[in-house]
Amino acid sequence: MNTNPTILDGVANRIGRGPGRWAWVGGAIWLFYLSQPLQSVADRQHGAVRVLGFVTVILFAASYLGFFGLVRWTVKHGDLLPWQRIGYLAVMLLLCLLMIPTAGQTALTGLVYIAACGVMLLSLPAGAALVLTLLAGAEISMRVVPGWRDDGSYGFAIFLGALAVYGMRRAIQRSIELDAARRDMAELAVQEERNRFARDLHDILGHSLTVITVKAELAGKLIAANPQRAASEVADVESLARAALADVRAAVAGYRELSLAGELVSARSALQAAEIKADLPTTVDEVPEDNRELFAWVVREGVTNVVRHSGAKRCTIKLSAGEIEVLDDGKGPTPGGGASGHGLVGLRERADQAEAAVQVGQAPGGGFRLAVKVGR
């Protein structure tokens, strides 16, 4: 597939593929103007010369229609080289000159078709130079060739035809640029969705696997001393594993939403398993519905960090309508800040989307503090 579309590719898109291959018929309508040289040949020539005149006009018409076939060829085989473009226009010009002995001045009509094709095939500077050359050639020849009259119609037709095709070329260029921009936006959207999905999986599995690890370690320690408690912890591990699997499946389906109340219950269980005293709110009624999912992510990320890294003995979560705090009495932030983990990066992204501010630092009296406040 051509990933660098050109003007010819844009024209091909206009012509179409499949059933659209017959759209060249629209371009054939403009062959109506070749009726002038045909009529001139019929009026001025006789016998074999007349037949030869008809043949040259028909060959020129075929070269014009061949432009549309050339466009479709570039789609399948790649863009044309400069010499191929110039060579094609040279063949058209040669056929136009061959019409002059039998069609006379009316053969200059062919210059309009050459100018139109040149504007599409060549770069803009080269196309402009070709149009000016053809226009000058038409005007000069009408003044110097005996029997030709200078009415200015051919020069005007060349200019007008080239201008119309230039407008179409600009429209095609804008369309190509717009298509490229749309592809870029689609790729960015896909990349953003991949990042979101990776972030969600990190948050889901990071929290769940941390709790499972802690409970499994606790169960291992309790097998000999308290088999009944160990069995309970193993049952919790199984339950957590099933919940994590359900979360992953829901994330893949794109339907997962966090519950603030559910995350608080899960946080209490995780903290107890890690032998960390939990001071958590018992209700979330004062938190507006719009803030609950963001606050649920804060609970998940904050508690995961407490269990994994803090070495704390106590964890406190404070809730209000527009703010949530997760505090512990552990070792506190690292000298580098300790705020650059993947989970905190993902939390900052979610907070930015909700126009909320994330604060990470030392808790009053020592330890670590994670806070999110809605409405900066």
From TrEMBL:
InterPro entries: HATPase_C_sf, Sensor_HK_TwoCompSys, Sig_transdc_His_kin_sub3_dim/P. Keywords: Kinase, Membrane, Transferase, Transmembrane, Transmembrane helix, Two-component regulatory system. The chain crosses the membrane at residues 22-39, 51-74, 86-104, 111-132, 152-168. GO terms for molecular function: protein histidine kinase activity. Its EC number is 2.7.13.3. SUPFAM superfamilies: ATPase domain of HSP90 chaperone/DNA topoisomerase II/histidine kinase (SSF55874). Residues 193-257 form the Signal transduction histidine kinase subgroup 3 dimerisation and phosphoacceptor domain. The keyword Plastid does not apply. This is Two-component system sensor histidine kinase DesK.
